[in-house]
Amino acid sequence: MFALSGKSALITGAAQGIGKTTAEKMSELGCRIAVADICREKTEAVVRGIRQSGGEAVGVFMDVTSNESIDFAVKEAANAFGGIDIVVNSAGILGTSSIEDMQRDGEWNRVLDIDLSGTFFVCQYALQYLKKSAAGRIINIASVTGRNGGFEGSMSYAAAKGGVIAITRGMARHLAKYRITVNAVCPATTKTEMLEGYTQERIDNQVKNILLGRLGKTEEIAAAVCYLASDEAAFVTGAMLDVNGGAYFG
Asked: What's the N-to-C CA distance of the chain in angstroms?
């Protein structure tokens, strides 16, 4: 089940965290991987690791705040594999500012530009290739914060991830005629490098709101992505797959 042999995926934010683990897991299932990230050194390390494990991968530099960079990277990925079947939008950053301290030209714009606008425009530029695929897939990494407004996260992050959920549903409606499915995975706080900006007290407060009493693992999020990318999920679109240990019920 969930075999991805013969398919090609573009994964943003794939140099670390959820994106990296997703790239590795999808490769294990036979998928060709375009590792897209702004950090060249880490990207190259992920590509080497996949190749050493017998997988097929290329690295593409992508700054999701630049449409020129997105366009170039998407074309690179498509040229490397003869097309793109799957797009996974995992690039993102956290916010830490309080409502009182939030600055429009600081954290607010930066988080929305990367987490929300980046997600939308990667989909836009990849669409020409997804339309040609026999099983086009878009999988966005949203968040429980976008579902419930968050407990400890900043409002910039809640707004961005709420927006990702909204465009996921909207794209699902608009792209169904091309047989492209569009879904999102909504994790609770997951143990990644992104938490380095959080204090231990803040992390502990988030864990208190997770019924299973722990942080998520990147492998658990990657497994959900692999399902949504597979043929078994061909009748799933516009869905928010909650992988959150009971932090949100709907």
From this structure: 28
